[in-house]
């Protein structure tokens, strides 16, 4: 189950007692506070706290006071200017703290984004739950023939069934041995910090993850991309929805100038100019590698 009864009781208690504050609040993100959004088979993401809003970005950019003296229209225009010209520090004035439950192998991808504050559930101190990520059949895919990091078509029939059974059986067997090793029933019991090495990478962990908006946008640009691994992308996609309700002007600018944009090399720009001038551009005369030219053609649809 995504939430334990204790966690749900804590959420209910926190949402039942609104706290008065003088700081800026955003109704859109307030509606999400503490609620857990289920993801994958046992995971979730939930907002624990936030600081700042769209006006805080503008306030920092102008180094003004209060909520500033500019109109809403000017605020949106300024945010789009900042995003368009890669002025990142004003976005660092906003922060978001999330509670995330996710498979360990997803966490190891996630932690590569080193610009956040993280505190993870300790398997040295506590006993991990018997919860494992088991993909849906349509998420079981073969290795991509053109991308060493990607997936190809979904496995079919007996092969898919066999892989699913192995994933379930191996996970359960590993956890059984983990539980037996740490048990103190008739034995000393192995230390938890050692026994955890036997657990598979699809077991679930949890952490608190706090990040500023600039670095959160960098995370989302990579992990909400169609090329990202599915299991981390579902988390990124959900976080995108939360951010859109928190800082709508900033998120719209991020969508337009980062998430939905492309980056072209000098060679690509030169080829585009030549094509607009009516010249035929081919792989042989483009001064790009075969892969880069394929990516260039994909950008142009």
Topology record:
Layout: H1 5-16, H2 27-30, E1 37-39, E2 43-51, H3 54-62, H4 72-84, E3 95-103, H5 104-110, E4 117-120, E5 141-143, E6 151-154, H6 157-182, H7 192-195, E7 204-212, H8 213-223, H9 230-246, H10 248-259, H11 266-276, H12 290-299
Antiparallel strand pairs: 1-2, 2-3, 3-7, 4-7, 5-6
Helix pairs in contact: 3-4, 4-10, 9-10
Catalytic activity: dUMP + (6R)-5,10-methylene-5,6,7,8-tetrahydrofolate + NADPH + H(+) = dTMP + (6S)-5,6,7,8-tetrahydrofolate + NADP(+)
GO molecular function, one term: flavin adenine dinucleotide binding
Pathway: Pyrimidine metabolism; dTTP biosynthesis
Detailed description of the structure:
Strand 1 and strand 2 form a beta hairpin. The chain is built from twelve helices and seven strands. With 301 residues, the chain is an alpha+beta fold. The strands form two sheets. Strands 1-2-3-7-4 form a five-stranded antiparallel beta sheet. A two-stranded antiparallel sheet has the order 5-6. The longest helix is centred in the middle third of the chain and has 26 residues. Helix 4 packs parallel to helix 10. The model has no long low-confidence stretch (mean pLDDT 92). The chain has three domains: 187 residues, Gyrase A, domain 2, CATH 3.30.1360.170; 66 residues; 34 residues, no CATH class. The two termini are 42 Å apart.
């Amino acid at each position: 189950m995504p939430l334990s009864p204790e966690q749900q009781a804590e959420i209910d208690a926190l949402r039942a007692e609104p706290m008065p504050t003088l700081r800026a609040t955003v109704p859109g993100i307030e509606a999400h506070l503490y609620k857990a959004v289920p993801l994958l088979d046992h995971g979730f993401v939930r907002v624990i706290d936030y600081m700042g809003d769209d006006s805080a970005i503008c306030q920092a950019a102008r180094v003004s006071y209060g909520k500033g003296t500019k109109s809403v229209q000017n605020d949106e225009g300024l945010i789009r200017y900042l995003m368009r010209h890669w002025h990142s520090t004003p976005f660092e004035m906003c922060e978001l703290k999330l509670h995330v439950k996710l498979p360990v192998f997803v966490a190891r991808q996630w932690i590569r984004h080193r610009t956040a504050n993280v505190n993870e559930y300790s398997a040295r101190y506590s006993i991990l739950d018997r919860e494992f990520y088991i993909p849906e059949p349509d998420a079981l895919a073969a290795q991509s023939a053109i991308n060493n990091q990607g997936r190809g078509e979904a496995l079919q029939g007996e092969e898919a069934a066999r892989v699913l059974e192995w994933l379930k059986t191996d996970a359960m067997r590993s956890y059984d041995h983990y539980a037996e090793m740490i048990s103190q029933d008739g034995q000393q019991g192995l230390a938890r910090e050692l026994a955890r090495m036997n657990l598979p990478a699809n077991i679930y962990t949890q952490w608190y993850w706090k990040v500023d908006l600039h670095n959160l946008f960098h995370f989302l640009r990579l992990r909400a991309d169609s090329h990202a691994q599915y299991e981390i992308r579902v988390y990124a996609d959900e976080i995108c929805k939360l951010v859109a309700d928190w800082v709508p002007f900033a998120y719209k600018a991020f969508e337009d100038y980062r998430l939905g944009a492309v980056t072209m090399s000098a060679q690509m720009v030169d080829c585009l100019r030549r094509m607009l001038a009516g010249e035929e551009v081919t792989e042989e005369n483009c001064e790009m590698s075969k892969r880069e030219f394929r990516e260039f053609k994909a950008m142009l649809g």
